[in-house]
Amino acid sequence: MSWLHSGDDSLRALALASAAKLAPRRYDTGTHDLGFLFTPSWVTAWRLTGDTTWRDGAVQAARSLLQRYNPRGRYLRAWGALGTSDNAGRMIIDTMMNLDLLVFAARETGESAFMDAAVGHAQTTQRLFPRPDGSTPHAYDLDPATGTPVGPNTVQGYSPTSCWARGQAWGIYGFTTMYRRTGDHRFLATARTLADYAVKALGPDHVPVWDYRAPQQPYDVKDASAGTVMACGLLDLAAATGSWSYRTTALRILGALCETCLTTHSTRAEAVVARCTRNRPAEDGIEISLPYADYYLLEAILRVLRPHDLDRAIDLSTV
Fold first, then answer.
1. pLDDT digits (tens), the chain, 319 positions
2. Which of 9, 44, 150, 298 has a CB 3.0–4.6 Å from the CB of 141, allowing a cystine?
3. Got the DSSP string for 133-201?
4. How far apart are the C-alpha atoms of 234 and 45, rounded to whole Å?
């Protein structure tokens, strides 16, 4: 992102060197996070350099991710080692962000299993997660043997009935992306439903609290990372729908983050964005800096200032 914005080739070299360190993770079947890891690194490197090493590695990562797909229930298992019962039936809203790696692999290989898993997981998430008001839980449990739904749950949210702000943002972004990749307007409708809830839940300062239904909100601790992700999702949604109110809200979020959440005066934080909360229930990282907040802030800025350049990197097209 920094290289696209600046043209500084030293940043390009750093990006490629950092991406190369992920090479062993191509074969990691123990996590659903392979899309988070390889889409903005190896897929982007392939798109910007044309070096097939990056493409082939990203496809291998997708093959590893595909092993976590359970056709009984049509979902990608979030956590736990394959072959164990640990969290075998758990899916989480975050996984919507990992589906684009499967879509990429489907396009590059022509193998339908990748797209079937991506669409299947998105449809299951669409069926189980959104509540009537548009809010979502962090997690949902199913019986891994039959795929029968068990019920909502949470790890990083306040409760199974609350709405973890970053998870809601993952949903907005992820469903909009799946609409662009498939043309299925039901995914777009779900993205709008989730976005409308999150926009209404924002406080006047436009920096999300960590959970929109936590009892101390709107005076609770903040999660600026939820704001960066939400801004990206809303900008994408505005482009997909032509509804400029989403863009207006995204710009207000970005303005608020840049005015109140940057580390411009910090002598200790090797980061751009502050006031991010990783996992409040575990008291793990309360209003700190998180690397994905920095990444999505830069992505959101480029969505506004340099959309054609960003399209080269992450493919903003719609089928």
1. 999 999 999 999 999 999 999 999 999 999 999 999 999 999 999 999 999 999 999 999 999 999 999 999 999 999 999 999 999 999 999 999 999 999 999 999 999 999 999 999 999 999 999 999 999 999 999 999 999 999 999 999 999 999 999 999 999 999 999 999 999 999 999 999 999 999 999 999 999 999 999 999 888 999 999 999 999 999 999 999 999 999 999 999 999 999 999 998 777 778 999 999 999 999 999 999 999 999 999 999 999 999 999 999 999 999 9
2. 150
3. TS---SEEEE-TTT--EEEEE-SSSSSTTS-BHHHHHHHHHHHHHHHHHH--HHHHHHHHHHHHHHHHH
4. 25
In angstroms, rounded to a whole number, what is the distance separating the alpha carbons of residues 46 and 238?
27
**Which two three-digit tokens encode residue 22?**
């992920």
Q: Which residues pair with 209 in a beta bridge?
A: 222
User: CB under 8 Å to 264, separation ≥6 — which residues?
Assistant: none
Residue that is written with structure tokens 């801004």 in the block: 231
DSSP string, 26-94: GG--S-STHHHHHIIIIIHHHHHH--HHHHHHHHHHHHHHHTTEETTTTEE--SS-TTS-TTTTEEEGG
Q: Give me the torsion for CA of 220, 274, 300, 24, rounded to 10°.
A: -110
CB within 8 Å of 147: residues ≥ 6 apart: 70, 72, 73, 74, 75
